[in-house]
Specification:
The complex is a heterotrimer of chains A (241), B (294) and C (326). Chain A is α/β, with parallel strands linked by helices and 241 residues long. Chain A has nine helices and ten strands. Classes of the chains: A alpha/beta (241), B mainly alpha (294), C mainly alpha (326).
Chain lengths: 241, 294, 326
């Protein structure tokens, strides 16, 4: 068997004595979609920030293709092929949609002309071509979320971390985004996705990792996890005695 | 060695004044997230108001403090909506615009003061300006000018009152809520604009009063603002920007650094030493000595 | 397109011919100094407008350049042109030292630190002996107005062209803007913000150092108040903000207007020089309130709305800039 694509080994991140993420471990194989779920404040976004290099873990290790990446700055991880989106979308508001994506393309295409050509291709794929020359700040929420994905994709990542890219979209937009995610998988991109909408997670994930109060409480196929009493309890609050 | 107690005492006395240079400024940063580049100019303008009131009324500068505070509280209160408009603007980068705006205000104040008050230095004599008391401890002599002691008492009084207001009153709770959660406190029905106006007024008022104290201890002139701005900046960075409990410690430290340079080394190097410390803090612990800045 | 180039060539031709047309030294001097201020305003804007970091000590680099050249020419007997690269280098070193601790932090820290550094360096020069202290330094006079006109023209033209290429054409400009807009997002896209900000700081500081060097040789006398005082920074800031941040044309226009106004003002109201401070302060405060995009930004936005291509209003940006770690 080949080595796992991404290994999260007993990662802990604390803020002022509180464990935001505690001793979390899981593995991803190349080409998988893994759903990361849990109630609000379970530590999903913190874990994302640790994997993408925005926080250094207090303990534990993250191995990406067998390379220890824990504590490396985000820009180095981006160059290694780890793309991420932000739950609170962060467009470069004063620049055009195309320019937003061109900036991300520079990692693989340092020349402006080639980066621009690449950015057009990305926008084609994410369906933002007709908005390419408007200011990013004038996009709708759905547009901004697409832009967020477009920017991450322009890195030509092999691992993509998607933080709530579906939440807040109407059903049509949501379906388009799900389609996009599935097509990315078929291109061989490994995806870790945080999402509140269960319908999405359960439909597209190969496996699901459940966090509660910063700890992993379950892992498995969507169907198994949905039946797990501990998971049900975490989502419904205190279970009856 | 003989001068050590004197250096310590001087440092503490002057450090007290520095608290009031920086505490309003730090409060305004905590609540409004504005770096007021005119901080030293408010001190200078307050000092000149004190100077002219003293000339005109012959009242002791310490008695004039409430009047100076009221006048500048009002000015700050009235100017704040303009500042608020700049820093909450939708165009450009509001934070930068706030910096540039207060920078412009500072230039205007300095220019106006130079035009109106001239280049000469003045002092604001107090009845206690001439007297000192002397201590003798094991063969070492310490001189404590009354006016400096009064300055320290003034600073402690201001700090206590501010502490009381922030901790015990409804207004204080609202201010602290505002500085911790800007968006959330807006939702809780706190009128952010009005509270910011009061805070800005308090900050400007305290700075102006401190100008009067400085005038009764040292001298004042229309160009003094920059020097005090630097001191205020130094203290808030050292304390952690917006972290009020750090201000007294940073102020006393600055006072001690200054008095040691004055007594043991060349005072011309003080500014460089101050900058050296500032630079080191930024390099090692940008959130200040206590790691609590915002 | 070709008409644009023709105009550009014509414009360059006029600039080159100025010394033969303008015979009066007084006016040639004014044009030369106007160039200098264009260079200072643009170089300040490289950091402020494009990167979002306000340098309230830009005059440091001008002064450091001026002093380096003066010291090398006076004490080491170097020729003027040999000193220029050293002045540029010294400015760069100061920028790196000042930039490394502060450019990682929010803009407010940078603004404070540069302002404080300016004061500290001024004091250092006042105390040191090899700088002549408060008496300043005198340089071997070289009274050739045409020489300084062309030197200033070449340097400022070069700075303009270099910035235009790097910031408007090359990838560097987009990277810098990305960091200005959102450094978290920029980091997740492979950009190292501190490194890029430091590069922008160098692009801002080095030209100021070279301009200071030329100024020293031109004026033949420098002292801490004239080249390291607040005035250099204050004027560059006002020119750039008034003209329009984040563009190259804006600060250039701002520089010409403010400088010509000052020259006129000086000539007629020399008894009231401090009034100039009030006017500078008033102009900048009013620009922030009434022309937040500066003169040039306002003109171009009118032109754009005339074309009526924009559909949506610019939505609030503050709601995108929530807690970076959420």
């Amino acid at each position: 068997m080949s080595e796992p694509f991404l290994q999260v080994n007993a990662v802990t991140k604390t803020f002022g004595g509180l464990h935001a993420v505690f001793q979390v471990s899981f593995q991803m194989n190349a080409g998988e979609i893994i759903g990361l779920i849990g109630p609000n404040g379970a530590g999903k976004t913190t874990l994302f920030n640790v994997i993408s290099g925005f926080y250094a873990p207090n303990s534990g290790k993250i191995l990406f293709k067998n390379l220890d990446i824990s504590g490396k700055p985000p820009y180095k991880l981006a160059r290694l092929g780890i793309g991420r989106t932000f739950q609170v979308v962060k467009p470069f508001a004063g620049l055009t949609v195309l320019e937003n994506v061109v900036i991300a393309s520079f990692v693989k295409y340092p020349q402006r002309r080639k980066a621009e050509k690449h950015a057009w291709q990305i926008l084609e794929m994410t369906g933002l071509v007709d908005r390419a020359n408007v200011q990013a700040s004038s996009l709708t929420l759905a547009g901004r979320k697409r832009l967020e994905v477009s920017k991450a994709l322009a890195l030509e990542p092999t691992l993509l971390l998607l933080d709530e890219v579906v939440a807040g979209l109407n059903p049509t937009e949501a379906d388009r985004t799900i389609e996009l995610i599935l097509s990315l998988r078929s291109q061989g991109i490994t995806i870790l996705i945080v999402e509140h909408i269960m319908r999405v997670i359960m439909n597209i994930s190969d496996r699901v990792v459940v966090l509660n109060f910063g700890q992993k409480i379950a892992e498995g196929s969507p169907r198994d996890v949905a039946k797990n009493p501990e998971v049900i309890q975490a989502y419904l609050g205190e279970a009856p005695q | 060695m003989e001068l050590l107690p004197q250096a310590l005492i001087d440092g503490l006395l002057i450090g007290g004044i520095y608290i009031t240079i920086a505490i309003g400024f730090s409060l305004a940063y905590g609540v409004m997230h504005i770096i007021d580049f005119a901080v030293g100019e408010w001190i200078m303008l307050g000092a000149f108001l004190g100077y002219y009131l003293n000339l005109w009324s012959a009242l002791d500068p310490f008695i004039l403090l409430p009047a100076v505070f009221l006048a500048f509280f009002l000015i700050g209160y009235l100017i704040q909506p303009l500042v608020y408009r700049v820093i909450s603007g939708k165009k450009g980068n509001p934070v930068l615009m706030g910096l540039v705006f207060t920078f412009g205000l500072g230039l205007m104040f300095r220019g106006s003061a130079l035009t109106g008050f001239g280049f000469y230095s003045h002092s604001i004599p107090s009845a206690i300006s001439q007297n000192s008391f002397f201590l003798e401890m094991g063969g070492m002599f310490i001189t404590i000018p009354y006016v400096r002691l009064a300055g320290l008492l003034y600073a402690l009084a201001v700090t206590m009152v501010l502490h009381f207001v922030l901790k015990k009153t409804n207004f204080g709770r609202a201010v602290r809520a505002l500085s911790q959660h800007r968006e959330a406190s807006g939702l809780m029905g706190i009128n952010a604009k009005r509270i910011s106006s009061y805070v800005y007024g308090i900050y400007v008022g305290i700075s102006a009063m401190t100008g009067v104290i400085i005038g009764s201890i040292f001298t004042i002139n229309a160009q003094m603002g920059g020097e005090y701005s630097i001191l205020a900046f130094f203290i808030v960075v050292l304390a952690g920007m917006g972290y009020l409990p750090g201000v007294p410690w940073a102020s006393f430290l600055l006072g001690l650094v200054q008095s040691f340079f004055l007594i043991y080394l060349n005072p011309s190097y003080t500014l460089m030493a101050v900058f050296g410390i500032l630079f080191t803090i930024l390099l090692i612990s940008p959130k200040g000595l206590f790691g609590r800045g915002v | 397109m070709s008409r644009k180039y023709l105009l550009l060539i014509l414009f360059c031709g006029i600039l080159l011919a100025v010394p033969s047309i303008v015979r009066d030294t007084f006016y040639l001097r004014i044009v030369t100094e106007a160039f200098m201020w264009i260079g200072l305003a643009i170089s300040w804007d490289v950091l402020a407008g494009y990167t979002g970091y306000l340098n309230f000590g830009h005059g440091i680099f001008f002064g450091v350049g001026a002093y380096t050249t003066s010291i090398l020419m006076n004490l080491c007997g170097w020729s003027f042109f040999m000193t220029l690269p050293v002045s540029a280098l010294v400015a760069a070193v100061v920028a790196v030292i000042a930039g490394i601790p502060t450019l990682r932090l929010k803009g407010a820290y940078f603004a404070i630190a540069t302002w404080a550094l300016a004061r500290a360096i001024q004091q250092m020069v006042l105390v040191a002996s090899f700088t002549g202290g408060p008496d300043g330094m005198r340089l071997p006079p070289f009274l050739h107005p045409g020489f300084f006109y062309y030197t200033m023209l070449i340097v400022v033209g070069g700075v303009f062209a270099l910035n235009w290429f790097l910031l408007e054409k090359a990838p560097f400009g987009l990277k810098v803007k990305a960091i200005r807009e959102d450094d978290q997002s920029a980091m997740s896209l492979g950009l190292n913000p501190t490194k890029i900000k430091l590069q922008a700081f160098l692009l801002s500081a080095v030209p100021a150092g070279i301009l200071g060097a030329i100024y020293a040789y031109w004026i033949t006398y420098i002292d801490p108040a004239s080249v390291l005082g607040d005035m250099v920074t204050d004027q560059a800031v006002v020119m750039a903000v008034f003209g329009g941040l984040g563009t190259l044309i804006g600060p250039a226009i701002g520089a010409v207007i403010i400088f010509l106004f000052k020259t006129y003002f000086w000539a007629y109201l020399s008894d009231y020089q401090v009034l100039y401070l009030i006017i500078l302060g008033g102009v900048i405060a009013a620009s922030v309130v009434f022309l937040p995009n500066g003169l040039w930004g306002t003109i171009t936005s009118y032109r754009q709305s005339d074309k009526a291509l924009k559909h949506e209003p610019v939505s609030s940006r503050s709601d995108d800039k929530g807690d970076p770690h959420v």
